[in-house]
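Run log // design_07
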């Protein structure tokens, strides 16, 4: 089963929107701290509306804790980054992939990108626009992986 991983997210509504997407698709959501907000944040809860009971949420206090946990599970780390080496639509996703997304301000660190089995990017037509909103990127990446896998 695909998993969405947010590493150091900073903006509660983005995380709430991603949680809602994960609830709708029955996709596990992993949050890797430190977070830029509290899990109880009202904006986070509001963005997720009343779907939180459907979210399969796991919180990891650090990237090291997440790395230890994910090593006990099947699947590859696929890093989404503006510097990704392959377009996400040309990449072949597998059912157990971990889709990693970095913070809104910094993206994924070089260390995390180096630990990924692959890095992908979402192509931008307008050169002045470097990336999409985090919640949009997570939805685009998740739905492309689901489309490829026939979900």
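design_07 sequence
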């Amino acid at each position: 089963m695909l998993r969405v991983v947010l590493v150091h997210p900073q903006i509660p509504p983005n995380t709430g929107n991603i949680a809602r997407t994960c609830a709708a698709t029955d996709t596990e959501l992993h949050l890797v701290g430190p977070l830029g907000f509290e899990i109880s944040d009202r904006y986070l809860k509001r963005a997720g509306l009343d779907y939180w009971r459907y979210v399969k949420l796991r919180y990891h206090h650090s990237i090291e804790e997440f790395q230890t946990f994910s090593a006990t599970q099947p699947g590859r780390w696929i890093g989404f980054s503006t510097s990704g080496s392959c377009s996400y639509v040309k990449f072949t996703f597998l059912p157990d992939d971990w889709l990693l997304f970095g913070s809104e301000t910094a993206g994924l660190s070089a260390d995390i990108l180096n630990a990924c089995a692959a890095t992908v990017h979402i192509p931008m037509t307008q050169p002045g626009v470097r990336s999409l909103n985090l919640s949009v990127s997570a939805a685009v990446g998740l739905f492309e992986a689901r489309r490829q896998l026939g979900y």
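The two ends are 11 Å apart (CA to CA).
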